[in-house]
Design brief:
Blueprint (H helix, E strand, L loop, with lengths): L3 H14 L9 E8 L16 E5 L3 E6 L3 E8 L9 E9 L9 H14 L2 E7 L5 E6 L8 E6 L1
Amino acid sequence: MKRFLPIVVGALTLVACSQPAQVQNVQWQVTNLYTSPEYPSAVPDEVAGLATITFGARSLTGSTGCARFQGVAEYDVEDPSEASTISVKEIVFDPIDEQTCVGKRLYVHNSMVDMLQDATFDIKNEPNGTTKVLSKQVDAVERPGMRLATT
């Protein structure tokens, strides 16, 4: 019996590690923005940790790194943790400070504003369980999107 217990505990640990993180009530850090193949996708170091999204049962809030935002979130199923798509509607962004929101910060801000306006995204859970990729539903080979990681 002593030999069996560690194997069972190890198997349970592997199962627990492969579970995707909840979508809602988790602050997600935007780590990559996929806008076009010509531009690097990684969020620049000076903006890292500032661009975030938190999804609620029917809402989302966050920051572009320059401005806070809030909007309505609609999932394709009742339980957001099982959703494969999310639609963002009625999103409102606070005004930016034009003195501090410049350069790479402004690029990230503008990219997030463009991407989140009245958009529907496919949700893909990454194998590590702490990362998700939101791909915008558009007719394009290279779809815009963002990679989110739990903070």
